[in-house]
Design a protein that fits this description.
alpha/beta, Rossmann fold, seven-stranded parallel sheet, 36% helix
Length: 486
């Protein structure tokens, strides 16, 4: 709490500056900055573990990054020109990810059926923002898609992109005005270093880009602006532009999170000073409860529906698969979006399972699939590939995971899952309010799990009824439009 309030105070000291709104550091995006990790290392005297900055290299790389970014933006703008938008439309801002394109057809992975339902009675525009400017964007251009699916960068002219560049260079850099202390230790240098990284590594650039896009969208007076809510820096671009307009802003919490995502938990200072949408909709009651209990939100936070969780149902209830008793001697590890953890996780798994009869399948996060293909693995390790012809509970004995939602889904699909606990800095718990069985393992318990599987002693069972109740609280079934969008 003290750390949360401290960063809120820093942001408050820079209130009125868009650079502060655009900063991942001041928006507490620990999955980007890892500032808390550096702070803890300083408190513990582990100075060699603190992120070091080479100022010369940082500036040279900044020039290269910025030049490449401008080139990509100009190219993308020319390839995906958007000259106009329907007046009073519902504008949906989403991400273009590899899963957005399946079999040559573009399908939004976040809002799914809601887009079709909204489109029945009103004009809807879906703006796909690319996470990178490589293969997925290329596939988007050549894939089948409705005319209302756009790349919002196409709203910007070359002159607009130059404005973004000039605005960023001239105003995005932040330098602290005061000294700040955490647990009696002065940490201003660490915060300043993180702010430098925001600027020189272009971590703040996304917000400046989206600010210019938001200005273009505002010209067409959208009735509703709907977006994926994570309380990140880029969201402030739209909230600042649509503030005091007739446009209703709605943030949708589309997937799970752990407590390391500090940006989901605004402080009392944030409650009074930060920007928020008019309403936040969640995927389920448990997430609504956690946001309200641990975050200081001045706006309604309400359960809506799990749009991405489109598993089959009977009589309005999700169908929960039963665990199988057979031991397959096969384990699946589902990796998080935190790429820096991959090396340690893989090494821990090798330490435990190498040269055993247990197969270990590695399910990398889709964003990093190509980044880890060249890693040398033991013969009993394999990179996971989806097989729609085989059910999960007919393939694996157990699913291991950390800080992603697949572990929750695997229980739903009839496979016992366990959160691998190894990060000493952050609380990565995803199985919120889970008490069906002890679902956390450290490395020592992995060795015990290995022995249980080898000697057919692993208990794969759990209460199907308890899982059904848990899933219904985590993920509310989407039942169609309601008053939020009327």
């Amino acid at each position: 709490m003290e750390y949360n309030e401290l960063l809120s105070q820093v942001a408050l000291d820079h209130k009125g500056e868009f650079s502060a709104l655009a900063s991942p550091t001041l928006n507490k995006q620990e999955t980007v900055t890892f500032l808390y990790k550096d702070v803890v290392n300083q408190l513990n005297g582990h100075t060699r573990k603190i992120t070091k900055i080479n100022p010369v290299r940082l500036r040279l790389e900044f020039i290269a990054r910025l030049g490449l970014m401008i080139f990509r933006l100009v190219k993308t703008s020319l390839q995906f020109r958007v000259k106009t938008l329907p007046k009073k439309c519902v504008y949906i801002r989403t991400w273009l990810v590899p899963r957005s394109i399946q079999n040559g057809i573009v399908r939004d992975d976040y809002f799914r059926q809601l887009i079709n339902d909204l489109s029945k009675n009103q004009s809807v525009i879906v703006g796909f923002h690319p996470l990178d400017y490589g293969e997925t964007l290329k596939k988007f251009k050549g894939s089948q898609k409705p005319k209302n699916f756009i790349i919002p960068i196409g709203l910007l002219s070359i002159l607009d992109i130059i404005k973004v560049l000039v605005n960023y260079i001239s105003s995005a850099k932040i330098k602290l005005k005061n000294e700040y202390f955490f647990k009696g230790n002065e940490i201003s240098v660490l915060i300043n270093d993180s702010l430098k990284m925001d600027y020189y590594k272009l971590r703040s650039f996304q917000a400046y880009l989206e600010l210019e896009i938001a200005k273009k969208i505002k010209l067409f007076s959208p009735r509703i602006f709907l977006y994926i809510f994570e309380n990140q820096a880029w969201e402030n671009a739209y909230l600042s532009i649509f503030k005091k307009t007739e446009t209703k802003t709605i943030g949708y919490q589309s997937s799970g999170f752990s407590f390391r995502f500090l940006n989901f938990f605004p402080s009392k200072i944030d409650c009074e000073n930060a920007l928020y949408p008019d309403k936040i909709l969640t995927v389920g009651d448990n997430f609504t409860k956690v946001l309200i209990e641990f975050g200081e939100y001045p706006i309604p936070v309400e359960t809506f529906g799990a749009l991405r969780f489109d598993f089959p149902t009977v009589n309005g209830n999700y169908i929960i698969e039963e665990p199988t008793s057979k031991i397959f001697k096969r384990v699946l590890y589902a990796f998080p979006v935190h790429f820096y953890q991959y090396q340690q996780i893989i090494q821990d798994l090798i330490d435990v399972f190498q040269s055993t009869e247990i197969e270990v399948h590695l399910k990398y996060h889709p964003l990093f699939q190509s980044s880890v293909n060249n890693i040398q693995l033991p013969s009993n390790f394999k990179v996971w590939s989806q097989d729609n012809n085989k059910k999960l509970n007919e393939t694996y004995d157990v699913v291991l995971f950390n800080d992603n939602s697949f572990g929750i889904e695997s229980i739903f699909m009839g496979v016992k899952s366990f959160e691998y606990v190894f990060d000493k800095y952050y609380d990565e718990t995803r199985l919120i309010c889970f008490d069906i069985y002890n679902a956390q393992l450290d490395k020592n318990k992995l060795f015990i799990l290995k022995e249980q599987i080898i000697f057919d002693k692993f208990d794969k069972t759990y209460s199907n009824e308890l899982v059904k109740n848990y899933i219904s609280n985590i993920y509310t079934r989407y039942k169609g439009l309601d008053e939020y969008f009327i």
